[in-house]
Design a protein that fits this description.
The chain is an alpha+beta fold. The protein has 16 helices and 35 strands. It folds into 4 domains: 110 residues, ATPase, nucleotide binding domain (Nucleotidyltransferase, domain 5); 135 residues; 205 residues, ATPase, nucleotide binding domain (Nucleotidyltransferase, domain 5, 2-Layer Sandwich); 102 residues, Dna Ligase, domain 1, CATH 3.30.1490. The strands form 9 sheets. Strands 13, 14, 15, 20, 23, 24, 31, 34 and 35 form a 9-stranded mixed β-sheet that branches. The protein has a 6-stranded mixed β-sheet with strand order 3-2-1-4-11-12, with helices on both faces.
Length: 657
């Protein structure tokens, strides 16, 4: 029996796989302490399945604790121990503008204040130690700070290749107090590029104490409830133990979106779709990712909240457009939606919990896409009068009617999500019309067809349990360890044997950290560039690669990405990436429709009222729009000109007629 629980901004979703059957449930999120909502969702899904906590064999958790703390600045007071002369790396950054055409826009302030930046007397070069570590000077600095910090980041020059000095500084820090958390750059992000490695290590140190306290609290509550200790989803789409995750808070910054991206890729593969744009729209935000061949695209680093993270992550673009996103009039009189959200408390006006500002959910209720007589998943009753009043107030500001305002809110929200899809496709040279749009999340199917129409996409997929698919993705995720190492090999040093040796060393580390290494799968990828280039392209390959094969693959990808290749240029292997993973669980197909209850409801499409067919549960056959399909945790809107048919695996296929 496998349990997955994903925390969102509005709802906490739970999925339970037992005896080949999938049971799901929702509970309101509890922002002050996410573990309360987690246990409430667990109890709801166990009750629905008629199961006991003691029956659960594995409990996997996806969360937003690290993300929220980083965005809100609620982090541990952190000291930075860096090579003398390089203590201001985090603040100096790349000296690039935050926004090219807004000179007033700035970067977030550094997490480490100047008084906690410690210059470490030492120096290491690419070939080894140039100046020995002055341990007494480090001890003196630790005594000077006198415990005025909760966590420490250690990032020394060339520490990713020669970590001896970093380890010794960490030992000296650990001797000063057992409660002090220490993050070293070679363990956190063993890659070159000094600023990115330093910034990542600082984030790791700043988040880890907070994450450790949360996971300890959740583990205690899980134990009291009879559940096993939780495993935690990492940003790269793999799962590790709570103990490992609590040591490296930076690894979990995209824990929440990763579960949905993994599940979307698995569902696209099951639907026999070679490529899919996965759209995860919840109550607070919308996450967009791209999957091909059953695997979500990954990246070796990105910025989150303006802070660089040089870590393996699922390649996800997030925008502040969700069911709870607040609609407002800007200074120029234009209608805007998000990024501010009503969240779980008080939530949209339609929730009847005191919210008064109009949201996307309120607009969907006014347009007839949602039914006030049908509670949302999680038992939320909808108040149509409160939704209308909130939308009307905004309409008076915009000088629009109630229906025009509601339709405008939905169109603006959908346009924002379509823009996110363009970022992940068009801006990267990918034609979205060649892909299917796979929509999930509580609000994803509501807007999916409108987004597809704007992008001229002809197919929309809505998988079973789409409203809680991120929780399902946690069950379907691998127990995995991702490892990276910058090697900088070129010329005569770039040989199959040299690369295989680096891969083997990383694989041994990964298997050591994963119990039961016999059934592990090993995948490798290599960051390559032409000599003299500043950035790399990641090429998947065999764990014992042939440099000639890597060369051919790199030239082809470079040609596709940039429009040219240079087969005569010297090739440089910059970074080796290895994933060591246990096989993921197989998910059961969606249950076939048992019955079909049909009714009609007036809804507004393109400014006109129409009688839409309303189907409770997945339809048994072809359903032409206008229609509304009320699924257990989500609602699918099929506008005029589109039709919906169920597939063998339980996924609904919506196509342009």
């Amino acid at each position: 029996m496998l349990l997955g629980v994903d925390v969102g901004g509005t709802f906490t979703d739970a999925a339970l796989l037992h005896d080949g059957r999938l049971t799901t449930a929702k509970a309101p999120s509890t922002p002050r302490d996410q573990s309360e909502g987690v246990l409430a969702a667990v109890q709801a899904v166990l009750d629905r399945a008629g199961a006991e906590a003691a029956d659960v064999e594995r409990f996997v958790h996806g969360m937003t604790v690290g993300t929220n703390a980083l965005l809100e600045g609620r982090v541990a007071r952190t000291a930075l121990f860096a090579t003398a002369g390089f203590t201001d790396l985090e603040e100096l950054g790349r000296q690039a503008r935050a926004e090219l055409y807004r000179l007033c826009a700035g970067h977030p302030p550094p997490l480490v204040p100047p008084e906690l930046r410690v210059a470490v007397p030492e120096r290491t070069g690419p070939d080894g130690v140039l100046e020995e570590l002055h341990e007494e000077a480090v001890r003196t600095e630790i005594e000077r700070l006198d415990g005025d910090f909760e966590s420490a980041a250690v990032c020394l020059l060339w520490g990713f290749r020669h970590p001896g000095h970093e380890r010794r500084v960490a030992e000296l820090l650990a001797g000063g107090g057992s409660e002090l958390h220490v993050s070293t750059s070679h363990e956190t992000a063993g890659v070159f590029r000094e600023y990115e490695r330093c910034a990542t290590t600082v984030v790791d140190a700043a988040l880890s104490p907070l994450l450790r306290r949360y996971l300890e609290r959740l583990s205690d509550r899980a134990r009291e409830a009879g559940l096993p200790p939780p495993d935690v989803m990492l940003s790269g789409g793999g799962v590790v133990s709570a103990a490992t995750a609590s040591r490296h808070g930076s690894w979990t910054v995209l824990s929440g979106p990763a579960g949905g991206a993994v599940a979307g890729a698995r569902m696209a593969e099951r639907a026999e779709v070679p490529g899919a744009v996965c759209l995860d729209m919840g109550g607070t935000s919308c996450d967009v990712s791209v999957s091909e061949g059953g695997r979500v695209r990954e990246t070796g680093g990105r910025e989150v909240g303006g802070r660089a993270l040089a870590l393996p992550m699922v390649d996800v673009h997030t925008v502040g457009a969700g069911g709870g996103s607040i609609a407002w009039r800007d200074a120029g009189g234009a209608l805007r939606v998000g990024p501010r959200s009503a969240g779980a408390d008080p939530g949209p006006a339609a929730y009847g919990r005191g919210g008064e500002e109009p949201t996307v959910t309120d607009a969907n209720l006014v347009l007839g896409y949602l039914d006030a007589g049908s509670p949302l998943a999680g038992g939320v009753e909808l108040d149509a009068a409160a939704a209308r009043a909130a939308v009307e107030r905004l309409g008076r500001e915009l000088e629009l009617s109630l229906e025009e305002t509601a339709a405008g809110i939905v169109r603006v929200g959908s346009a924002e999500m379509a823009r996110a899809v363009r970022v992940m496709t068009v801006e990267r040279g990918v034609d979205p019309r060649d892909f299917a749009l796979l929509a999930f999340g509580g609000a994803g199917p509501l807007h999916a067809v409108a987004i597809a129409a704007e992008l001229e996409m002809n197919r929309v997929l809505v998988p079973p349990s789409s409203g809680v698919l991120s929780a399902v993705g946690l069950i379907a995720s691998e127990l995995r360890r991702d490892l990276v190492r910058s090697v900088l090999l070129s010329g005569a040093k770039f040989t199959s044997g040299a690369v295989a040796e680096e891969v083997a060393d990383l694989v041994a580390r990964g298997r050591e950290e994963l119990a039961g290494a016999d059934d592990t799968e090993v995948r490798a990828a290599f960051d390559l560039r032409y000599a003299g280039q500043a950035f790399e392209l990641t090429i998947p390959g065999d764990p014992r690669p042939d440099p000639a094969e890597l060369r051919r693959a790199f030239d082809a990808v470079h040609e596709e990405r940039y429009g040219y290749s240079d087969p005569d240029a010297e090739l440089e292997l910059v970074t080796v990436r290895v994933a060591v993973a246990h096989p993921a669980a197989e998910l059961p197909p969606g249950a076939p429709p048992e019955g079909e209850e049909r009714a009609t409801r007036e809804a507004i499409f393109e400014g006109r009222g129409a009688d839409a067919a309303v189907v409770a549960g997945p339809p048994r056959g072809r359903l032409d729009g206008p229609a509304i399909v009320e699924l257990p945790e989500a609602t699918l809107v099929v506008p005029p000109g589109w039709s919906c048919v169920p597939t063998a695996g339980g996924t609904l296929l919506v196509e342009r007629r």
